[in-house]
Specification:
Layout (H helix, E strand, L loop, with lengths): L1 H30 L2 E9 L6 E4 L8 E7 L10 E8 L2 H5 L10 E12 L4
Parallel strand pairs: 3-5
Antiparallel strand pairs: 1-2, 1-4, 2-3, 4-5
């Protein structure tokens, strides 16, 4: 009886490890930094920002949750933003609530491309 319990536990652990590894890979993919380009606008709430008019492929709007660089001086500018994706469910429950967007990010860097937006 003890040996069947031990075998059952070993089997359960062996099956759980690949599932845990897949979840870790999904988390890593979500945390991978990427760069996108668009026009910075003020969000609907105070001190919130949205990047709009992004590339043809990809999201049309990007809600910014956190930014290490100060974004306020770049409102109205075309910028490159670099950061990590934030799942929509997590972003939409954040405080302050970001403007509704197709994609959400935490920013680690920005680069001004142009002082005006097309």
């Amino acid at each position: 009886m003890k040996s069947s319990i031990v075998c059952g536990l070993i089997t359960a652990c062996a099956l759980a490890l690949p599932v845990a590894a897949q979840e870790k890979q999904k988390d890593k993919a979500a945390q991978k930094e990427h760069t996108m380009t668009g026009c910075l606008q003020k969000g609907t709430e105070a001190n919130t920002f949205v990047v709009a008019s992004t590339a043809e492929k990809g999201p049309k709007t990007i809600g910014i949750l956190e930014s290490k660089p100060n974004l306020a001086p770049h409102v109205g500018h075309k910028i490159d933003i670099t950061g990590t994706a934030v799942p929509a469910k997590e972003a939409e429950s954040a405080k302050p609530k970001p403007s509704k967007a197709d994609h959400y990010m935490n920013l680690s860097a920005i680069k001004m491309i142009s002082a005006t937006c097309p």
